[in-house]
From TrEMBL:
Domain of life: Bacteria
Pfam families membership: ABC_tran
Keyword ATP-binding: yes
UniProt GO molecular function: ATP binding; ATP hydrolysis activity
SUPFAM superfamilies assigned: P-loop containing nucleoside triphosphate hydrolases
Keywords per UniProt: ATP-binding, Nucleotide-binding, Transport
Domain ABC transporter: 33-265
Region of interest (Disordered), ranges: 1-25
Protein name per its UniProtKB record: ABC transporter ATP-binding protein
UniProt KW Nucleotide-binding keyword: yes
Length: 291
């Protein structure tokens, strides 16, 4: 049976208060995109591809926000801009009120393919980023890696090599590796897309637990409506390219969440609400995007 706590809608008043002045920042959002446009140059031509156009998004510290939308609408591009990998052509993109200067240890990207270094142990894969920063001694980096492996449910596998792990275990290592540099924001680009459905559901619960434990903000790109509904505080639905957010849908449950939520009528209703916007039956993106 579902506990009242697990199903209880978040306190709107508390959330509003938090959004007004998170951590005493005087109303400055943790991440703010206003009128963001991002273009790619076409090789050998003066033309550009506009991937994202006039996109607005506000993310407060500790939020978990999912981005969904048609293929090629610019979700990854926006994530890359927040990571500092691509520059914006127009608009404002700020972290804590300051323009994003480029990549930094305050943001960590988690990609779909773990791409772990096959010749390094699992522990050495997780500690690698920390060792590169040279801010901690090797022994401390190893100790932190072991703590993170325990956090993601992989205690005891640190001396194994990536090839000895299942896809789900590699996804956990991928997450631990991103957390090693203690980022404030996790940028996750379909990190569980290649994982079987059953394991993916377990990983989603684990991810929420880990985010709460580490107090990180998460921006998560997915094509999976159920995944977005289960993970998010808010689901942002993109238009087709050039992408902008056409609708934000608030998810009414506190986090972390348990698997039981997926079997409730409220969850089915929420999934339908997202699909309605995405597939065009309500204010949406339009069926033509999917033809
Ligand atoms: N490096 C690049 N150079 C040129 N064009 C690019 C580049 N990266 C992406 N694009 C183009 O920008 C648009 C948005 O791509 P992006 O990968 O951001 O979309 P997406 O919503 O993440 O797609 P998907 O859901 O299929 O992964 C696409 O038209 C894509 O071809």
């Amino acid at each position: 049976m579902l506990s009242r706590e697990k199903l209880a809608p978040s306190s709107t008043a508390a959330r509003d208060a938090a959004h007004t002045d998170v951590g005493g920042t005087g109303g400055i959002a943790h991440l703010e995109a206003r009128g963001v446009t991002i273009e790619y140059a076409k090789p050998g031509s003066k033309e550009v591809t506009t991937a994202v156009e006039q996109c607005d998004l506000t993310v407060e510290r500790g939020d978990f926000v999912c981005l969904v939308g048609p293929s090629g609408c610019g979700k990854t591009t926006l994530l890359n801009a927040v990571a500092g990998f691509v520059k914006i052509a127009d608009g404002v993109l700020e972290l804590d009120g300051r323009p994003i200067p480029g990549p930094g240890p305050d943001r960590a990207m988690v990609f779909q393919h773990a791409n772990l270094l096959p010749w390094r142990t699992v522990q050495a894969n997780v500690s690698y980023g920390l060792e590169l920063t040279k801010k901690v001694k090797k022994a401390e980096a190893k100790q932190r890696a072991d703590e993170l492996l325990e956090l993601v449910g992989l205690a005891g596998v640190g001396q194994q090599f990536p090839a000895q792990l299942s896809g789900g275990m590699q996804a956990r290592v991928n997450l631990a590796r991103a957390l090693a540099v203690e980022p404030e924001i996790l940028l996750l680009d379909e990190p569980f897309a290649a994982i079987d459905a059953q394991t993916r559901e377990v990983l989603q619960v684990e991810l929420l637990r880990v985010c709460a434990a580490r107090d990180v903000t998460a921006l998560f790109v997915t094509h999976d409506i159920s995944e977005a509904a289960f993970l998010s505080d808010r689901v942002c639905v993109f238009s087709p390219r050039p992408g902008r957010i056409v609708k934000e849908i608030t998810v009414p449950w506190d986090r972390p969440r348990s698997q039981e939520i997926r079997r409730t009528a409220e969850f089915a209703h929420l999934r339908d609400e997202i699909a309605d916007v995405l597939y065009g039956t309500k204010n949406g993106v339009g069926q033509e995007a999917y033809r």
